[in-house]
Batch of 3 targets.
Target 1
Amino acid sequence: MFGVIDLPTYLAGLVLIVLLPGPNSLYVLSVAARRGVRAGYTAAAGVWCGDTVLMTLSAAGVASLLQANAVLFGIVKYAGAGYLTWLAIGMMRAAWAMWRTRREKAVEETADTGTHERPFRRAFVVSLLNPKAILFFVAFFVQFVDPGYAYPALSFVVLGAFAQAASFLYLTALIFSGTRLASAFRRRKRLSAGATSAAGALFLGFAVKLSLASS
């Protein structure tokens, strides 16, 4: 079908990959828990747009360029690690403020991170600043593209469409789970602070992992 081979194997692998926790899904869950369904979908839209850009770049061969050019790969890699570190520090500062105060208004303002947060832009940038994702899309997608097919770009489009559909279902589940978690967090401030701390620590771990990645 459109130059795609062994579709059942691809779908099985795709489900496993989508279910692996990462900075994108974690950020969407965090936004949904703090700001509700609408903001959660706004962040998810940033993820989908970022992934679309990465898939397009992968199909166009940018992944091969990053893999061959160590300097370019390093620039993108450390930029991504720096951004994830900045997000982690912000989450940990918010969690520390929650631990230090019991006043309802202060906690809510801190947990919400203010009206200046732009979930779409943040999620979009987190998605883009991940050179390993570009390399992954090529390494994974190319295994299921018929080398003899006359229009390989169309094959990438089909594979990407399945990937986005799986991402939509998964992030939707996270968004609605996040809104349920939010009510528990509002009742238990220590739980909210602990969860925010854990999210910040995970983002810091993602930053370290990305900074140590090799092309």
Note: The two ends are 32 Å apart (CA to CA).
Target 2
Amino acid sequence: MFDLDGVLVDSERMWDEVRQAFAARHGGTWTPAATRAMQGMSTPEWATYLVTEVGVRLTPAEVASGVIGEMAERYAEGPPVLPGAVDVVREVASRYPVAIASSSPPVLIKSFLAATDLTDVVPVAISSEQAGAGKPAPDVYLLATSKLGADPTRSAAVEDSTNGLRAALSAGMTVYAVPNPHFPPDPTVLARVTVLRDLSALPAALASRTSG
């Protein structure tokens, strides 16, 4: 199970830039806690957060539409795919069933899969919008494993953020972290997972786990 933002695409900072600029244009006041708080939230959750906590003077539906529209415009120029990410997904998919379990809206997940020619390689791609609660709740991982016909306790997840790691742990999965250098995860959460130097180390880590 691959997270998308921060694992396969370098988009965490893009989300942050777009949300901050959008909030500033619509009467909001950014807080130091806002960036980390929204990492992993589903679209309805972060849209509501921007209204109730940041003070954006729009409805949550208007916030979601505006922010996602701006993100889609950026993705139209080509999603910011991290180096080697597509090759890693293909290598892992050659040995195991794979899925994407992301907090990104479906339109951006589909954009990523189409741009990278991974649509046929990744049979299940779930947004937390479709699962109920966003991360750190385990909903998106539980739905993704269910759609894939997999047992969560026999599955692995790759995450970069504190809330994502907590979500995968709550689902009972084996969890690998590729820590986001711009928004480092909580060290107490990292202590509970296997930390990889980068995503390219994942295939070997999975092979070692399987053989062990």
Note: Residues 14 and 90 are 25 Å apart (CA to CA).
Target 3
Amino acid sequence: MSGKEQLTTEPTRRRLTERQADTVRRLTDAAVVEVGESGYEGLTVRNVAKRAGVAPATAYTYFASKNHLITEVFWRRLSALPPVEADGTLLERVVEVLRDIALLVSDEPELAAACTTALLGTDPDVRELRVRIGVAIRERLQAALRDHDDPKILGALELAYTGALVHAGMGYTSYARMADRLAEMAELILPEPPE
């Protein structure tokens, strides 16, 4: 490693140099295009590697499976969200957090469906990212709840989000509609504001 290359922390398997981080970025960008064209069923790490201009063996050093790769795409989008705003009412803050998360992939139906499937994968790398995703969502909800950080309310909101994600992933509703439904559930779950 040259003196100019710095290590970048990535949620893949290890700390990466800038060049390696660029390879990972190219692979995740290519995965989004590939899943949009081929769907989840047609997606392969090998095809993503080809699209990214990376050798398949290199791609597999970063991603153990297509589930790992697609879960990484979701993680990157979640991580890129701006911090939770402190303004607004309790309901407005919580709805905004749920809406932001629900709409991460809503404009890309093939990617959205792939994310739902991938997040349920059993690969160790997927499980690790799923934990990170869960923690990040919990932290965003806690930031929105602020002093209303009741574990029962937090748990109910997490279950509402997870259930809505699976519901949309099964094709029962669109991801855009899921955001509206989550707003409705937040109204039911959150305490009434004092009069």
Note: The radius of gyration is 18 Å.
